Q: What sequence folds into this?
């Protein structure tokens, strides 16, 4: 698909005024305060797998309203030390899947908690967490569920789950609670930004092609993917636009990004019509704006010829190297290591 958004030079300077509710902070503080009334870690049990190098546990923690939320906890087998933990959030329509599906982080030497997305499994991957709060006015899909009010909106629940996942990760055995990283792509990238704005002591944030950033603009320039579900809802519910826009202002990733203080690593494809690049750049350029003192470290990788897939494996490699540097982890340079002899690699 062709370039459709602002030129890159303008994107790098794009800091739009974003409508932010006056009670944004009190809304989220009261929401999270209510969630903390329940003990966070509900169940932890070893998960048998055929993996020799990774140990897995099935985790259940209390999310929004005390609802049980499922997650996989993986870590390198045979490692007893307390490790940094990557709390990862999945993309739209995905669930946590099976414990062996996402192994990059534990193979790289990190603990890894992969949160299920309540009520979303079946489109791209399986999940095990229902969403029992479906009565608020809105549409049938997760992104429109309860969208007529901030209090009943689906993403109020999912963002609360995401914050509680960080709290659950800190309670897990073998985790260094001072080194928690929020990570995700697309919907997961939006959740990692929300967590960055609501949790003040993260070690780092990894976000690519983040969803729910500057949604007011996204609705004007794209109807692809998840934003298309909101467009379709408004095409039928023609008088709902003011209420929908008000609700979206409470979950805007730009507002969360303004409150974040952890080092952050972004990745954006300039041909992304699912999460338009200007919406992600808005979050990047506003990141840490309300934080006193020196601004947090920000890194952006741009992929001019990619869409919603952004940098894919190249981006993950960049994340690994950046995160090792930020956390002060040792990395191994294998360029001078032992080489296979030609006898071993020559054809028979």
A:
């Amino acid at each position: 698909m062709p370039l459709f958004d602002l030129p890159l030079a303008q994107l790098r300077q794009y800091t739009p005024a974003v409508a932010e509710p006056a009670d944004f902070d009190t809304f989220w503080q009261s929401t999270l305060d209510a969630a903390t009334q329940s003990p966070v870690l509900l169940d932890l049990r070893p998960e048998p797998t055929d993996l020799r190098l990774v140990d897995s546990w099935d985790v259940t923690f209390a999310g929004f309203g005390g609802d049980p939320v499922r997650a996989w906890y993986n870590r390198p087998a045979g490692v007893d030390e307390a490790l940094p933990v990557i709390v990862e959030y999945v993309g739209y329509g995905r669930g946590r899947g099976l414990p062996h599906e996402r192994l990059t982080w534990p193979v790289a030497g990190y603990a890894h908690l992969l949160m299920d997305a309540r009520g979303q499994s079946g489109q791209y991957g399986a999940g095990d967490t229902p969403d029992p709060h479906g009565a608020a006015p809105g549409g049938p899909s997760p992104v429109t569920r309860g969208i007529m009010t901030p209090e009943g909106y689906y993403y109020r629940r999912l963002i609360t789950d995401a914050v509680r996942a960080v709290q659950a990760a800190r309670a897990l055995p073998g985790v260094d609670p001072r080194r928690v990283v929020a990570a995700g792509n697309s919907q997961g990238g939006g959740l990692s930004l929300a967590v960055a704005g609501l949790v003040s002591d993260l070690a780092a944030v990894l976000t690519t092609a983040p969803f729910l950033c500057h949604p007011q603009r996204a609705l004007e320039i794209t109807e692809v993917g998840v934003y298309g579900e909101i467009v379709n809802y408004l095409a039928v519910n023609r008088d709902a636009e003011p209420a929908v826009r008000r609700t979206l202002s409470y979950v805007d990733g730009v507002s969360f990004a303004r409150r974040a203080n952890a080092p952050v690593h972004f990745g954006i494809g300039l041909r992304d019509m699912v999460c338009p690049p200007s919406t992600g750049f808005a979050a990047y350029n506003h990141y840490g704006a309300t934080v006193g003192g020196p601004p947090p470290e920000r890194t952006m990788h741009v992929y001019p010829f990619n869409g919603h897939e952004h940098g894919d494996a190249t981006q993950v490699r960049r994340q690994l190297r950046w995160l090792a540097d930020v956390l002060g982890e040792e990395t191994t340079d294998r360029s001078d290591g032992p080489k296979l002899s030609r006898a071993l690699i020559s054809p028979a």
Notes: Residues 51 and 118 are 27 Å apart (CA to CA).
